[in-house]
Amino acid sequence: xxxxxxxxxxxxxQGMTGATGMKHTKLMLGDGTNVVGGVNxxxxxxxxxxxxxxxxxxxxxxxxxxxxxxxxxxxxxxxxFTKDAVVEAIDAEIPLAVVITEGIAVHDTASFxxxxxKKGNKTRxxxxxxxxxITPGQSNVGIIPGDITKPGRxxxxxxxxTLTYQMMYELRDIGFSTAVGIGGDxxxxxxxxxALAAFQDDPDTDxxxxxxxxxxxxxxxxAAFIKENVTKPVVGYVAGFTAPEGKTMGHAxxxxxxxxxxxxxxxxxxxxxxxxxxxxxxxTAKLAREIxxx
Length: 294
Fold this sequence. Notes:
This protein is α/β, with parallel strands linked by helices. It folds into 2 domains: 11-126, NAD(P)-binding Rossmann-like Domain (Rossmann fold), CATH 3.40.50.720; 148-293, Succinyl-CoA synthetase domains (Rossmann fold, 3-Layer(aba) Sandwich), CATH 3.40.50. 34% of the residues lie in helices and 23% in strands. The protein has 9 helices and 14 strands. Strands 3-4-2-1-5-6-7 form a 7-stranded mixed sheet, sandwiched between helices. The chain has a 7-stranded mixed sheet with strand order 9-8-11-10-12-13-14, sandwiched between helices. The protein starts with 10 loop residues before the first strand and ends with a helix.
């Protein structure tokens, strides 16, 4: 089992023929991902050879779904075209759209997020500005390195790309059911809560690792959800304990105002919900090991 992505997932790449899309399509194929097509209206009808694997290019997402049965799209288009690409994926009712692109205007994200809702939320959006989602040994959609971990029984949801990779590496001997990088922008599609609910319902996930960071109140809301709805053990890490107040740190969403949004406030909220919170990624991994060891 896994959440949202497995060996049967059929993946298309919007922006596959661009430099970034080409690079990561090759890596995703190398990880065993079933990439069935690319989308570029200017190159429709062509095929791209990835070390002997011929991947067709379609003019639209709708056509790609009709011809291949695709149920996942990963989006590698430049930020000024991303909104249109996501709207196209939503109109085609693809079940999962993973938006890797960073630097998207918050207004654009708000627009396509609202559009997905208006269309009945038939498309789950992960991202934008995220590393993607991986179910190790089955499928890898995005830019997460596929060789840093193995299949296992930990579920991971993280705002930060690099901390996703570090946690996967720290716990590589135990392995992961699925790891999801949700992105750190002020507005995102899939949230911590969405992933927590999915991992709670996944019989092959025994423990959940949740990585947050300063700014906003997503972690506090996740803590409230955990208290009410999650019976599996959760360990957490909040990036930004040493961040100066009022300064934007890296991600567009990581800004602290007053006492709200601080790492300490988030840590306290999570601990009040029974989550063990590490002060460093390594300490967080150690807590996970201790719980799984019983």
